[in-house]
Amino acid sequence: MSIKSRNNATMLHPNTAIKVAFNLAIKWHADQQYGNTMYITHLMGVASQMTTADEIIVALLHDILEDTEIDVEILRLNFGNKITKTIQLLSKVEKGVHKFKSYDDFIQSIADSNNWLAIKVKLADLQYNLDHNPKKSLIKRYKKAIEMLKSKI
Question: Hey, which bits of 21-115 come out as E strands?
């Protein structure tokens, strides 16, 4: 079931949109691992910390542009510009090209965006990573990123 938004783009009902996001995440991350588990475990873990449909959708898809070959237009057609732009903001790599000189620059771009949806999802992503046996070399990076983002809340 779809509905028309004000800009006449077809938008999915929130429950349908979550199902579409989940199915896209499963399809496009199918062969990927998060530690010793399927990658969808990580995405569901981040999504479980969210409360609204938009938050859940972005959480499920926050790595899809960075880690897969999906065309951004698939996201735009299913979820609209707001969700797509948020997912793009959460991607440090798009179509194999690094968009930032450093990880700190990437995190700063999210912090400076004032996109509270992106900030909330990235904070949940970082916390999930910290809580699930991160590589020791990444703990300091994640903690610094959390502080950078929390300073904007």
Answer: 33-34, 37-38, 93-94, 97-98
> What is the architecture of the domain spanning 2-150?
Orthogonal Bundle (1.10)
Q: What distance in Å separates the CA atoms of residue 142 and residue 130, rounded to the nearest whole number?
A: 7
73, 24 contact by CB (below 8 A): no
Handedness of CA 88, 68, 120, 5 (dihedral sign): positive
With contact defined as beta carbons under 8 Å apart, do 106 and 99 qualify? yes
Which pTM does this prediction carry? 0.90
Axis-axis angle for helices 53-61, 14-28 (nearest 10): 10
What are the residue boundaries of the structural domains of the chain, listed by start? 2-150
pLDDT in tens, 5-47: 434 344 678 899 999 999 999 999 999 999 899 999 999 999 9
- Confirm if 77 and 10 have CB atoms less than 8 A apart: yes
